[in-house]
Every structure is written in structure tokens, then in C-alpha cells.
Amino acid sequence: MPPPARLSDIRCPADCVPPREAMLRAQPRSFGAARLPDGLRVTVRPACPWDAGRVQDYVRGLSLASRYDRFLAPVNELSPAELARVGGGGPRHGTLIAEIKIGGVRIMIGEARYAVGSSDGLTCEIALSVADAWRGRGLGTLLMDYLECRARSLGVTTLVGDVLRSNTAMRTLARKSGFGLGVPADAKLVRIVKDISAARVGTPCAQRATAGLPIAA
User: Rounded CA gap, 110 and 59, in Å?
Assistant: First the structure.
């Protein structure tokens, strides 16, 4: 059995391989798998440049309210500039994709974005979304864990994110994931903040990507 995958090993696009080859290889370096509380097996991997179309389709498939919550503004799809960043930006900026397989077909059901600040390299801004039909099953918690582990591997000490005050689901997820509230960005937003400088509590990051590992709801 191969050793557990480590998020610190993720390098994209250098580790990216064409989709068919990627699924055939299923390399521990590039893939992590977990089971949600209801037993659903989810694969989380770094997005690659050729995933841009899939990410765009995923965004278009979100409800209007979900897109507004994710991008903090009414949008129908990603701009060309945003699509160009999918799978790019080097190791300190990236997108993670959550997928399942149904009938042999890979279906994207979530995504998470991280970007390490250029000023001191110690702060990482995060954001995520879960497909409407797959909410309430623990996927948001899983993606938060992956984001934290990825940030830790990059030497980050603080996670931050801007959330709409009206986005109750995301605010609840952040609170359950150990985030507090920072200085509000503006009247319609709240800033979630988490100090990750101390030793991690719970599942070690080196084990997070182990296939079959259950996660908390």
C-alpha cells in the first residue's frame, strides 16, 4: 500500500497530467481521498489548466444565490482572467477540486481556492463552494481541512476569508472549523480569521488524504 498522500507534495501544474492518465495513475502525490459521514467517497485534487472548462461548467451550474455567496457579487460565470488562474499561479496560489464518480463518470461537486499574501507570506486568503445538491454532507468541512493543511505546508500562520453577512451556512462552517471574526471588510461582509501557527489539533495533515479516512460532519 502506498504511503498516505501529503498536501505538501501537491505541485500544480508541474504534477498535472492529462485527465485520463491522471485517473489511471491515481498517484498519491496528486490525489487525496476521503469518505464523508454518509460513506460517499470524495477525491480532492489540485486543478490543472485543462480543468478550466469543468470549473466554468461547475460555476454555471451553481444556483444564483450560491454564486453570489461564493463571489460576493452577482455573476453568471468566471471571467477569462479568473479562468486563466485555474491550475496556475504557482504553489502559493491554487484551486482544489472535489470530485465523485458515478457510473464511471467524474462529477465535480466542490472547489476551494487559496492565495498566499505577497506582503509577508504568512497570511492565506481562502474561499470555497459546494454544489447545491451536495450540501449538508460534510464536504465543506473536508475542503476546509484541505485548505488548512495546504496553507500549513506553505508556512502560513493565518487563514482569512471574506464572507457575506447573509451567508449563514459559510459562517457556521467557519465557526465549526475554528475561525473567529476579524475586522469587517465592509458593511455587507464579515472577515473570518484562524490562527494556525500552533500545532494542528485533530487528524494530522499527513493522514488527511489517506483513502477511506472518515471525517467529522
Answer: 10
- CA-nearest of 30, 182, 36 to 94 is 30
Report pTM: 0.82
How crowded is the C-beta side of 150, counted as CA atoms within 13 Å? 29
Domain coverage including residue 195: 7-200
* Domain assignment present for 85: yes
- What's the structural domain count of the chain? 1
Q: 61-111: per-residue pLDDT in tens?
A: 999 999 999 999 999 999 999 998 888 767 788 999 999 999 999 999 999
Give the span between the Cα atoms of 33 and 117, in whole angstroms: 28
Domain-located, residue 216:
no
Using one digit for the tens of pLDDT, what is the confidence trace for 65-78? 999 999 999 999 99
CATH number at residue 85: 3.40.630.30
